[in-house]
Amino acid sequence: MKDAGVHLRGIKKSFGAIDVIRGVDMDIQRGQFAVFVGPSGCGKSTLLRMIAGLEDTSDGQIAIGDRDVTHEDPADRGVAMVFQSYALYPHLSVYENMAFSLRLAKRPKAEVDEKVREAAGILQLVEHLDKKPAQLSGGQRQRVAIGRAIVRAPEVFLFDEPLSNLDAELRVQMRLELARLHKALGATMIYVTHDQVEAMTLADTIFVLQGGYVQQSGAPLDLYDDPSNRFVAGFIGSPSMNFLDATVSGHGDNGVTATLTGQPDISFDIPLVDKPAHGARIALGMRPEHLQVTEGQGLRVTVDVAEELGGVSYQHGTLDGGEPVIFQQTGARHGMHGTIQTVTPDPGRIFVFDAEGDRIR
Amino acid sequence: MTVKRARDLAFSGIVLIAAAIWIFPLYWALTTSLRSENRIVSDAGVIIDELNFSAYLSVLSNSKLPMWYFNSVGTSLIITVIVLVTGMMCAYALSQLRFPGCKLLYLVVVASFMVPVPALYVAQFVLMSDLNLVNTWWGIILPQLIVPVVVIVYKQFFDAIPREMREAVLLDGGGEFTLLFKLYLPLNWGITAALAIITFISAWNNFFWPFLIATSENMMTIPVGITQVNDSFGVAYARMMALALLAAAPVIIGYLVFQKRVTEAVMISAGVKG
């Protein structure tokens, strides 16, 4: 099976006066599983549709392998797409749905049959080949949509939120199947989702989009450990990172002292190389798993909701200053609901963001 | 007896009475066609007490009935096929393609509803005459090809097909013709059948335009042919009724076979026409 990288240079897209994509550069290497993730309206689906050729490109260049496909028809780009709604042809059987593109390309009957049966074998659809889409479950329909893409042997697979119509259990199962499929086919895949868990579990490379820009790209754990700005830090990780507003109240040899805006009696000594000016407003980011329950000094949290998940529990509460805070406890059954706890962040793992949201530590 | 059952019975009774009123003219035509001409004039009774098939024999042997049948079937079929194919393609373009004047064109189609067809007869007759199409099939057919309701109904159904399905076909390598004939049309076979039936029936039943344009007996359709069975003594009622029943027979049989589709079609076009 052929596969190739996808390379975008200065991609822009406007709908009338509204700029949706404002200049995107990206390189997705051949065989990579790339995930576009971001909140609703960030432009991730539009970008995918531009790669597919379903939306015109206002400016910039899209290349697949070494071919400039910016202005080519969708069918000539060597891409196949799996839609959120599956977009199966309801009047055709599973077999005919999968054979549709090959028949349009006037491939010999034997070849069509071989490819359809091969894809059906991979996707465990052999016994459903004569059924109509309406007779299938959601997961099976999604597999047919994937099968329809596989038979075309495209250079690049595009997935537009393919799992969002499935129930939670099936979503986890299909996620694993997609990961296995990627390993088996070794093709370049681009996947759009707003679910950062899907992004973290599937991706070789994640592109976090917001406001028509790529905020950051990289391996999932790199983004988790080393977010470049407050948006990425908040978006990657579940539950989200806690952010506490603070002010620089003192400078030391190796860092600064930051005092919480909501609780002037609490301050942290944070190691920092580029020290903001005295009085500068900053935000401190703390992941829920980096807050330890301690006795004595620390952040006082009134726990109002305890999510006990068995292996871990997430304690949702508010600080004395009113800011919401989540901290994680390994194990469960802590019975913290309604209690007041004191938590302390690991100073070495506090993220610091400046007033613009850029990370300074 | 419960109130509900009484209400059901009363409703059924009303429906039966209405049905009897509607079917009576047809029944009367049948009894008339089975009597001798002399008896009809003296006794216009409605009981079938005579089985006189002379009117049918006369119509079948002395009129050009087979020719009229042929003309009716031929012109109605051609009208149906052309109206559906052009209507479907026009609706597809209006629904799915973006081109300058698209919305204006659709408004023109909708506005053409407001022009009563008889208002066009004189202009159409002059046009057909200039084109030397009087007394030809094309003279009968051409003016009947303008059926905006087909375009509007198709457009509504095409609009309802999800955009992603269209995009899937584009990605699969299909063009506009593939989209129309392998996606939009197969997804709308039901409405196509319904539109075909109402278009055929309305072409078959059309009297006035063929009456104007087909003056030669060889070019007449059946409804026009009915006017030709008078004899030198005046109106021949039995023959006229026999011919009317023979003319209606294919439509009645067609209706009984496709009853569900016809009902659907009438409801859809009534919905569009408001």
Task: Describe, in plain words, how this protein is organized in 3D.
The complex is a heterodimer of chains A (361) and B (274). By secondary structure, chain A is an alpha+beta fold. Chain A has 2 domains: 6-235, P-loop containing nucleotide triphosphate hydrolases (Rossmann fold); 242-353, OB fold (Dihydrolipoamide Acetyltransferase, E2P) (Beta Barrel). Helices cover 23% and strands 35% of the residues of chain A. A 6-stranded mixed β-sheet of chain A has the order 6-7-8-3-9-10, with helices on both faces. The model of chain A has no long low-confidence stretch (mean pLDDT 91). With 274 residues, chain B is mainly α. Chain B has 2 domains: 1-52, no CATH class; 61-273, MetI-like (MetI-like fold, Orthogonal Bundle), CATH 1.10.3720.10. In chain B, helix 4 (65-96) packs across helix 8 (148-159) and helix 8 packs across helix 15. Chain B is globular and about 75 Å long. Chain B starts with a helix and ends with a helix. The relative contact order of chain B is 0.14. The mean pLDDT of chain B is 88. The A-B interface holds A 52-54, 73-75, 79-81, 83-85, 87-91, 100-101, 104-105, 148, 152 and B 162, 164-165, 167-174, 178, 183, 186-187.
The CATH architecture of the largest domain in chain A comes to 3-Layer(aba) Sandwich
- Placed side by side, the strands forming the largest sheet of chain A appear as 6-7-8-3-9-10
How many E strands of chain B?
A: 0
Which chains share the greatest interface?
A-B, 23 and 15 residues
Shape of chain A: elongated
CATH first level of the largest domain in chain A = Alpha Beta
In DSSP terms, counting alpha (H) and pi (I) runs of 4 or more, how many helices of chain A? 8
CATH superfamily of the largest domain in chain A: P-loop containing nucleotide triphosphate hydrolases
How far apart are the termini of chain B? 40 Å
